[in-house]
């Protein structure tokens, strides 16, 4: 009986974590759309997400980033709860969970530090270093979690590796994209991350059983 109660508690906390992760992703999408519509002269195809977060209405995008960071932290908690599956490597899984948690910290710093290298005076600028760190952490998270995801579902594992490959190839290309397409390409990469987060949240919501994409 006690074991059943503990299991129900674990499943309940995992579902709560999945819900928070999903909500964080949806809030980020909403704030990006709202901010893009309200910011004077802003073009989501031409201008980057950082440009939107550095303007007069920066609080809108920063709110979304903070919500997303909270969602990532909840996702890390949920992934830790459900574990790596019957044939997964606990060390690799734990490493992936740590990468997701660190990713949450980096996103929060980007939002709360509120300095994007936009020529404001008096700010200590390390935004680009945080962007590099974010890119590395997400790539590592997808790779480290892959074996455990395959242990749960071949589709989920294949999806994770496809995201990893797209990220590893696409993220560096962003720095060579023509200026007029910065926003579109960056949002494509952001969409990749959001879809991955939503898929992982679904896995977490499913608990310790096998979970597929369908």
Automatic annotation (TrEMBL):
It comes from the Bacteria. The chain crosses the membrane at residues 16-39, 59-79, 91-112, 124-146, 158-177, 189-205. Keywords: Membrane, Transmembrane, Transmembrane helix. Pfam families: DUF998. It comes from Salinarimonas ramus. This is DUF998 domain-containing protein.
């Amino acid at each position: 009986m006690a074991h059943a109660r503990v299991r129900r508690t674990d499943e309940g906390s995992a579902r709560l974590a999945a819900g928070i992760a999903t909500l964080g992703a949806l809030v980020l999408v909403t704030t990006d759309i709202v901010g893009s519509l309200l910011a004077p002269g802003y073009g989501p195809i031409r201008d980057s997400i950082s440009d939107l977060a550095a303007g007069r209405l920066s609080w809108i995008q920063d709110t979304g980033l903070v919500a997303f960071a909270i969602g990532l932290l909840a996702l890390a908690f949920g992934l830790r709860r459900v574990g790596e599956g019957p044939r997964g490597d606990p060390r690799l899984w734990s490493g992936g969970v740590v990468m997701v948690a660190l990713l949450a910290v980096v996103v929060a710093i980007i939002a709360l530090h509120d300095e994007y290298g936009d020529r404001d005076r008096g700010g200590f600028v390390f935004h680009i270093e945080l962007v590099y760190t974010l890119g590395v952490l997400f790539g590592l998270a997808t790779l480290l979690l892959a074996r455990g995801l395959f242990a749960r579902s071949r589709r989920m594992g294949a999806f994770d590796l496809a995201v990893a490959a797209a990220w590893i190839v696409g993220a560096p290309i962003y720095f060579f994209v023509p200026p007029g397409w910065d926003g579109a390409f960056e949002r494509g990469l952001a969409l990749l991350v959001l879809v991955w987060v939503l898929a992982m949240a679904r896995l977490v919501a499913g608990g310790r059983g096998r979970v597929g994409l369908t």
